[in-house]
Amino acid sequence: MNFVMPIKDDIMLEDICDYLKAKNPRDYVWFSVGIYTGLRISDILALKVIDVKDRSFIISREIKTGKARRTALNEKKLIPILKAYCSGRRPHEYLFLSNRGSNKAISRFTAYKVIKEIGKVFKLDNIGTHTMRKTFGFHHYQQYHDVAKLMKIFNHDDQSTTMRYIGLEQDDMDETLKNFDYKRR
Q: Is 40 a catalytic residue?
């Protein structure tokens, strides 16, 4: 079984954003939405221009759970990105347009291909479309150290699920195994 992991190195994360911005601004923007909101890829791809243009939050219904969600947008980073990206766009267009057909969003598979390309270019294993959500969670936890709040953001039932989800439980297990010595007492 393959586990999708977060991107923990913030310098690498900046390099990935620069790479995407130069290669395809559309992909840079949906990736940025993912790492700054923690939304699932299916919820990101369902967004329309009207959902984010001139707004400080997104009101949506999660596709996976059917639950309503209000997601604040990062004022310093994400709002300027979205403002520039939405400029001149029609309100009811999908935010991330496919090259196929009119007003059709890119597919989850297209997003997956972009993420896999990032993995090859940056030599990252174990990444997929959930990587953005997990990356958001990892860095949110590193900044605020509030697993209860993160648990609510992710709509998880318990804190251990959240810790495992963002890769911290695995980090802790790895550290104890690296330093384990049966002779220490």
A: yes
Question: Which DSSP string corresponds to 10-34?
Answer: HHHHHHHHHHHHHH-HHHHHHHHHH
Of 28, 36, 133, 141, which is the active-site residue? 133
Any idea where the domains of the chain sit in the sequence? 10-145
User: 3-class secondary structure for 72-90?
Assistant: ECCCCCHHHHHHHHHCCCC
3-state secondary structure of 161: helix
Homologous superfamily, domain 10-145: Intergrase catalytic core (1.10.443.10)
**What angle is formed at CA 109 by the lines to CA 104 and CA 112, rounded to 5 degrees?**
125
- Cα 44 → chain centroid: 9
- Whole-structure pTM over 0.85, yes or no? yes
CB 172 within 8 A of CB 164: no
**Lowest mean pLDDT across 89-103, 138-152, 167-181:** 167-181
Q: Is 165 a catalytic residue?
A: yes
